[in-house]
Amino acid sequence: RKEVEQDPGPFNVPEGATVAFNCTYSNSASQSFFWYRQDCRKEPKLLMSVYSSGNEDGRFTAQLNRASQYISLLIRDSKLSDSATYLCVVNKGNNAGNMLTFGGGTRLMVKP
Amino acid sequence: DAMVIQNPRYQVTQFGKPVTLSCSQTLNHNVMYWYQQKSSQAPKLLFHYYDKDFNNEADTPDNFQSRRPNTSFCFLDIRSPGLGDAAMYLCATSRGGFTPLHFGNGTRLTVT
User: Fold this and answer.
1) pLDDT tens-digit readout, B18-69
2) Are B107 and B6 in contact (CB under 8 A)?
C-alpha cells in the first residue's frame, strides 16, 4: 500500500459545480496534512493546511478523518481557474515532522 | 519578498557530465529539501537538511549528492546524469516541526 494515495482523476466538472477529493494515508501516526495545488510545469503551492477540527478558506474546505485515515478537499462554486492538479501531503509519522510525502495528485478540469 | 529561489530555471547537460543545481532562501527556515518530479508523477523526496543535519532517503541513488554550506543555500549535485534523471527538481524549505513546505520555482533538467 502506498503511503499516500489519491484518485488521479481527471475530474471533469462544469463551472459552478461542487467537487470533492479524498486522500488516504497509511501511517496512523501522521500528524501534519496539507493540500497543495500544482499548475502544469509549475511548482506546487500551498492551498491549505488541514486541521483536526476541519478548516475553511473561502470556497475551499478541508477535513481530516483520523479514524479512517483520510483527508478531504471540497471546492464549492468551481471556477475555470481551479483547473489544476491537487496534491495531498502527509508527514511520515510522529517523530518525522520534516518527512513529508506527496500523494500522486488528483487532476481537476473545470469546463465552461 | 522572502522566498525560495532556484537557479537556473532550465538546465541542459550531457549524459555523464556532472551538473549542480542551486537553491537559496530568504525565509531563514531550518529545513531545506530536494524533490525530484517526473512528468505526471508526484514529487519524490531525495533528501533534506535540518540545519546541518543531512537526511538521505533510502532509495535516493548515490549519483545524487547535496551540500548545504549555510542556512541560505543548498545545492544538488548529480555526479553522472543519466537519461532517466531528466526531471523537474524542486527545492523547498520549512520551519520544521509539522509546518508546510515552501517551494522554489524548480529547475527543469534535460539530459542529452
Assistant:
1) 999 999 999 999 999 999 999 989 999 999 999 999 999 889 999 999 999 9
2) yes
Q: Which of A36, A43, A98 sits opposite B96 (nearest CB)?
A: A98
Sign of the alpha-carbon dihedral angle for A78, A20, B103, B12: negative
> Are residues B46 and B64 in contact, defined by beta-carbon separation less than 8 angstroms?
yes
Best A2, A43, A46, A47 member to test B by mutation, with max B CBs in 10 Å, is A43
Residues B22, B11 contacting (CB under 8 angstroms): no
C-alpha cell at A7: 484518485
pLDDT confidence of residue A30: 87
* Distance, CA of A1 to chain centre: 18
The one-letter amino acid at B79: R
The model's pLDDT over A63-100, given as tens digits with 9 standing for 90+, comes to: 999 999 999 999 999 999 999 999 999 987 655 556 78
CA-to-CA distance for A35 and A33, rounded, in angstroms?
Answer: 7
- Cα of A42 to nearest chain B Cα, Å: 7
What distance in Å separates the CA atoms of residue A81 and residue A27, rounded to the nearest whole number? Answer: 33
User: Which letter, b or e, does each residue of A80-107 get, where b requires 16 or more Cβ atoms within 10 Å of its Cβ?
Assistant: eebbbbbbbbbbbeeebbbbbbbbbbbb
Average model confidence (pLDDT) across chain A: 92
Per-residue pLDDT at B60: 95
